[in-house]
Specification:
The protein is mainly α. It has two domains: about 190 residues, Orthogonal Bundle (Citrate Synthase, domain 1); about 100 residues, Cytochrome p450-Terp, domain 2, CATH 1.10.230.10. Helices cover about 55% and strands about 5% of the residues. Strand 1 and strand 2 form a beta hairpin. Helix 3 packs across helix 6, helix 5 packs across helix 6 and helix 12 crosses helix 14. The radius of gyration is 22 Å and the shape is globular. The model has no long low-confidence stretch (mean pLDDT about 95). The protein binds acetyl coenzyme *A and oxaloacetate ion (OAA).
Length: about 375
């Protein structure tokens, strides 16, 4: 047996120095480059926040105008890529479609020389600009509709909505979607970002970095939880069922989706903002039954799981918000990816500045020095 100490899940093990985002998990504080994420969600735009994450400071007016132009002019997909998306099984999961199409995107824009910053910046623009188009294209094509071409006169959030639904969002809807993208853009060393850094550390091309990260985000313990939450709320059904449902879930050691976090031991600050967005949306329309179940679940869980430091995370309220915008459940995690690509790319660029390949150790628990028995001598 090895003497090395094993830290399952690398809990509390620092794996890189990073200046991109800061989390205080006891005080519900999340900052991107020093600015509170809640402030950015209210005051900024996804494009401005992406620049902040990638470059380190807020852009000047000229920088932002150029960045917007650079992103807008890279939204369109090659027709062969649309053909590839058409060839994917329409009942496949959109996260799998996204992972495949991001990987294929890299074949149209080869960028294997990751030692060149200009190439890397070009790939950063291409990936950030293209992810919404890839997600929207699959979501339409699987329903037998044509993909909608992106529009350069719309900002990132409005164009994404337009490509999904074929109509422009209202100003209020655009703002909600933009705020959701900002809130999901970055979260230091989470599993998908670590995946991006590990993949980047081999000097793999940026499209491989992002497609690896998409795969990691898709799991239900990470980004995929936002989709699971809606299924869970459906399974609970009514407010009256919440207490018994939760007691049974705890007794059977089931995971409550959208609850718990490696870093936050209080309510995730992003969940608080997402809940505010939901409340604002429901102020006029009235609260949907599913939202009533969600807030009852949070109330009951505060008593039963709160003492263990288990509170709602970012995935708990995002689905309720997206559903109110008319977004299908299986697009919740792809939308997360559309936002998180900003963080993945910021970490990839940061990793490359001071790269060393990730190659951790293991605690070996297998056999050694085993004799080979020829097949004819085995039973
Ligand atoms: C964008 C994001 O990725 S946010 C996270 C999204 N994921 C989810 O919502 C899925 C549900 N949550 C979880 O599975 C976990 O809380 C994670 C994966 C987020 C964090 O996992 P870890 O930091 O490894 O926490 P871990 O699983 O060790 O939990 C510690 C204890 O709390 C319990 N616990 C943690 N989360 C939950 C939960 N959601 N429901 C019930 N119990 C929970 C564990 O069972 C464990 O209990 P034990 O000490 O009695 O064994
Ligand atoms: O930080 C984590 O482990 C998961 C998370 O909340 C995120 O990626 O947004």
């Amino acid at each position: 047996m090895s003497e090395m100490e094993l830290r399952p899940g690398l809990a509390d093990v620092p794996v890189a120095e990073s200046a991109i985002s800061f989390i205080d998990g006891k005080r519900a504080r999340l900052e991107y480059r020093g600015i509170a994420a809640e402030t950015l969600a209210k005051e900024s735009s996804f494009e401005e926040t992406t620049w902040l994450l990638l470059k380190g400071d807020l852009p000047t007016q000229k920088e932002l105008a150029e960045f917007n132009h650079d992103l807008r002019s890279r939204r369109k997909l090659k027709y062969k890529l649309i053909d590839l998306i058409k060839s994917l099984p329409e009942n496949g999961h959109p996260m799998d479609a996204l992972q495949s199409s991001v990987s294929a995107l890299g074949m149209f824009y080869p960028s294997r020389d990751v030692g060149n910053y200009a190439n890397n910046w070009e790939a950063t623009l291409r990936l950030t600009a293209s992810l919404p188009t890839l997600v929207a294209a699959f979501s339409r094509i699987r329903n037998g509709d044509e993909a909608i071409e992106p529009r350069e006169d719309l900002d990132h959030a409005a164009n994404f909505y337009y490509m999904m639904f074929g109509k422009e969002p209202s100003a209020a809807t655009r703002k909600v979607l933009d705020a959701c993208l900002i809130l999901h853009a970055e979260h230091n060393m989470n599993a998908s970002t670590f995946t991006a850094r590990v993949t980047g550390s081999t000097l793999a091309n940026p499209y491989s970095v992002v497609s690896a990260a998409v795969g990691s985000l898709s799991g239900p313990l990470h980004g995929g939880a936002n989709e699971e939450v809606l299924g869970m709320l459906d399974a609970i059904g009514t407010k009256a069922n919440v207490q018994s449902w939760l007691e049974n879930a705890i007794a059977t050691k089931a995971k409550i989706m959208g609850f718990g976090h490696r870093v936050y031991k209080v309510k995730d600050p992003r969940a608080t903002v997402l809940q505010e967005l939901a409340e604002n949306m429901f102020a006029e329309t009235g609260r949907p039954a599913k939202y009533e179940v969600a807030i009852e679940l949070e109330r009951v869980a505060n008593g039963l799981l709160g003492p263990k430091g288990i509170y709602p995370n970012v995935d708990f309220f995002s689905g309720v918000v997206y559903q109110s915008l008319g977004i299908p459940t299986d697009l919740f995690t792809p939308i997360f990816a559309v936002a998180r690509v900003a963080g993945w790319l910021a970490h990839w660029l940061e990793q490359l500045k001071n790269n060393r390949i990730y190659r951790p150790e293991q605690v070996f628990v297998g056999k050694t020095n085993v004799d080979y028995i020829p097949l004819e001598k085995r039973p």
